Amino acid sequence: MLTVVCLCQLMVVLDVSVVNVALPSIRTDLGFTASGLQWVVNAYTLAFGGLLLLGGRLADVIGQRRAAVAGLALFGVTSLLGGLAQQPWELVAARAAQGVSGALLLPVSLTVITTTFAEGPARHRALAVWGAVAGAGGAAGVLLGGVLTEYLDWRWVLFVNVPIAAVAIPLAVACVPARRPGRRPRLDIAGAVLATAAMVVLVYSVVRTDTYAWGSPQTLGGLALGLVLAGAFVAVERRTAAPLVRLGILRSRSLAVACLTVFLIACGQFGAFYFASLYLQGVVEYSPVRTGLAFVPFSLGVVTGTIVAGRIMARVGPRPPLVVGLVLAAAGMSWFGAVSPHGSFTGDILGPSLVASLGLGLCMVPNTAAGTSGVAREEAGLASGLLNSARQCGGSIGLAVLVTVAGTVTRHHEDPAGAAAVTAGYGRAFLVSGLLIAVAALAAAVLLPRRPAPDPAGGADADAEPAAAGTGG
């Protein structure tokens, strides 16, 4: 089962990393504009983030095996269609469809871990393996993306998901239990529609700020509509017997803080990857393969941090490695802000890569462990959906904000078309990334309980810190 869920995680992580490296080639081949290129990323994360709550809940309702097989099959088919795209809109549509399949695939992988491995050391080890696969997938993705883009074609960065799905589907059928409640709960269709609409409208309004200013009627109107939809969602959930999101679950301080933390991490991390790829290929003129190799130390640092975090969490709980990791990640991202138009790998990339990646690796597993601690088995998919939804929405919103920051700095430079102006914009975006992750570190240090408390559905105090809760007793 752990092999299957790791393959699910690998497909999602690999897809993001290989596409980032291929972005310049995609722009040239299909004729994307500079602002339109971000939709190759945002179309995926919009659908992904908007549907993760529904995808997580579906894993609880239809059973883990069905959800895993459906997600894998849809991911393989949409990857094939994306690789065959001939127009920008075709690729963007395929990426959105990939996001739909990923919204089902990723929550079920975390749900299987949560419901299979007992809370404590066993679950921590499983989460460490799951997180290490994410880091290794990142390393493989950036290198594989560079090799495929340079020696074959960018389309192969999407085709590569097809054989992975072909291997994973029969394994899922054989190994993943068809676990679901004895009495199947009703699916909250109204809540699902409102939650998806609110997330999509909010994120879309933000990512369109490259065209419409933050103070424009279009942006302000979109944000207002998104907040109205979110308010309607809360009202519906309060009155629904079987809600999509039981709002009481957010009284678990550990889960609420974990969602906030992962949102801020993603705000900084997703945009940093985007600009690092453009900087390496567009400013210092690395080839796709060399760009992939430049990302390898970062990905290996994430794997190392994940392994270290998995080993020390059982002794000290999730909060210490989480806070230390976030501080390191913030320092590394801020260090990236010193990039220059004539930078080198050793002077501008390697040092900040190692610091930021070790920090991100240290905080991945502890944050997930904190967010899933004390969650009832029948709501494991919901908790997974909340965490992953916060991450993906943070990534989309963060990328849009950082694109706006970088574009503003570049436009106000004395030579907006020069490499110095572009690099100055990227550098400012990296600094903002570091600031966002620093805020996450502060939130984790101040708000996260020393030992995660159980979900207070049964009347427990959400802010209590029982000694046994952190490591499962």
Q: What is the secondary structure topology, with strand pairs?
A:
Blueprint: H1 2-30, H2 38-62, H3 64-83, H4 88-116, H5 121-151, H6 156-159, H7 161-175, H8 189-207, H9 217-239, H10 253-282, H11 288-316, H12 319-336, H13 345-372, H14 380-411, H15 419-447
Protein name: MFS transporter
Organism: Streptomyces tagetis
Membrane topology: Multi-pass membrane protein
Q: Please give the number of β-strands.
A: 0
Name given to the CATH architecture of the largest domain: Up-down Bundle
Count of all domains: 2
Order of helices and strands: HHHHHHHHHHHHHHH
Note the overall shape: globular
CATH structural class of the largest domain? Mainly Alpha
Helix content: over 70%
Q: Into which percentage range does the β-strand content fall?
A: under 5%
Q: Could you give a short account of the major beta sheet? A: none
- Quote the CATH topology of the largest domain: Growth Hormone, Chain: A
For the termini, the CA-CA separation is 24 Å
- Give the CATH H-level superfamily of the largest domain: MFS general substrate transporter like domains
Average pLDDT level: 79
Main structural class: mainly alpha
Rg from alpha-carbon coordinates: 21 Å
Given as residue ranges, the uncertain stretches (5+ residues, pLDDT < 50) are 452-473
What's the helix count? 15
Task: Describe it.
With 473 residues, the protein is mainly α. It folds into 2 domains: 2-187 and 244-458, MFS general substrate transporter like domains (Growth Hormone, Chain: A, Up-down Bundle); 188-243. Helix content is 76%, strand content 0%. The protein contains 15 helices and no strands. Helix 2 (38-62) packs antiparallel against helix 3, helix 2 runs antiparallel to helix 14 (380-411) and helix 5 (121-151) runs antiparallel to helix 13 (345-372). It is globular and about 60 Å long. Keywords: Antibiotic resistance, Cell membrane, Membrane, Transmembrane, Transmembrane helix, Transport.
